[in-house]
Write a structure and sequence with these properties.
Blueprint: E1 2-11, E2 20-25, H1 33-43, E3 47-52, H2 56-62, E4 64-69, E5 74-75, H3 79-93, E6 97-102, E7 105-111, E8 120-125, E9 130-134, H4 137-144, E10 158-161, E11 165-170, H5 174-179, H6 184-191, E12 198-203, E13 213-219, E14 222-224, H7 228-240, E15 250-254, E16 262-271, E17 274-294
């Protein structure tokens, strides 16, 4: 029998049972892609990650190999899985910096010195953003099912990616954003005809005045409590259009509508016309763990 240890975390929070849940398999050698996808479905969280340890000399050069799965597919990059998986590696290896080798490329994550009994606080540096299509307001309004007055007018609806492409949509009021009940099939139909994979809906009105943005991300018919792979592109979008200052951190609140409050701390830099230095950070706590036992793989 094959035995695989896993750790369960809550990411972008300092309290158990909030934030975005994550399962990390600490040594997934011997699993193939179909088994990883089946285990992600078994764990039933938005993402599950699989660490594939290699020779230390290889990891020092290219990073620790990690694969990321939703319940439906493998992703080249995702935010809370990156931060959470790096936190597991940092704790087990007693280091403050971890380089992950993801399908999107190497992603460095740095942690503040660990304090016994306290959440780990870390920050990833994402790839430089790619700014994609600017979307027609009327088409987005129809997809979301909201009136024109509920879209902010001082920044465009645009696709931005640091590894996963999000359509950033500025919603004028917090009340509309919190009450929004979009139809996933209609959103998916729209996205299939664009360069975006998901919508990231944001308002500059917030529930907590310490934060700059309130965000929601609907996907696969459900809702994500905290989306680090969207928060980075959103920070880049904010800086590009003068809605946030270059290299100044600010908070994004997310997950309140589904009773999983989360907080992401983000920043991006602007030098001339170039946006870069995209950083996304937050806290990570361990909430449990266990072991999965599988039959030996059949011999070929």
């Amino acid at each position: 029998m094959r035995r695989y240890r896993y750790v369960r975390l809550d990411v972008f929070t300092d309290r158990p049972l909030t934030g975005n849940g994550l399962t990390v398999f600490t040594d997934a050698r011997g699993l193939d892609g179909s088994e990883m996808l089946a285990l992600a479905r078994e764990m039933a969280q938005s993402e599950t990650t699989f660490i594939l340890p290699q020779d230390p000399a290889v990891e020092a050069k290219t990073g620790v190999r990690v694969r990321i799965f939703t319940v439906g597919e493998e992703l080249p990059f995702a935010g809370h899985p990156t931060l959470g998986t790096a936190a597991v590696i940092a704790a087990e290896r007693q280091v403050d910096e971890v380089l992950l080798d993801l399908d999107v490329g190497p992603v460095p994550v740095r942690f503040q010195p660990a304090v016994a009994g306290a959440p780990l606080t870390g920050e990833m540096t994402q790839r430089d953003p790619v700014f994609g299509d600017i979307h027609e307001r009327s088409s987005v309004l129809r997809a979301l099912g909201i009136p024109d007055r509920e879209l902010a007018i001082d920044a465009p609806i645009q696709t931005v990616s640091t590894g996963l492409a999000y359509v950033i949509v500025p919603i004028a009021s917090l009340a509309m954003l919190r009450d929004l009940r979009p139809d996933w099939l209609r959103l998916s139909d729209y996205l299939e005809r664009t360069d975006g994979k998901f919508f990231y809906l944001v308002s500059r009105q917030t529930a907590d005045p310490q934060n700059r943005l309130h965000a929601r991300m609907i996907f696969y018919g459900g809702e994500d409590p905290a989306t680090g792979s969207a928060a980075g592109p959103c920070a880049a979008w904010m800086v590009r259009y003068g809605l946030a200052s270059s290299n100044v951190s600010f908070g994004i609140e997310q997950g309140l509508e589904i009773h999983r409050p989360s907080r992401l701390v983000v920043s991006a830099g602007l030098q001339g016309d170039h946006v870069g230095n995209v950083r996304v950070g937050g806290q990570v706590i361990t909430v449990g763990g266990g072991e999965v036992v599988l039959p030996d793989a059949p011999r070929r």
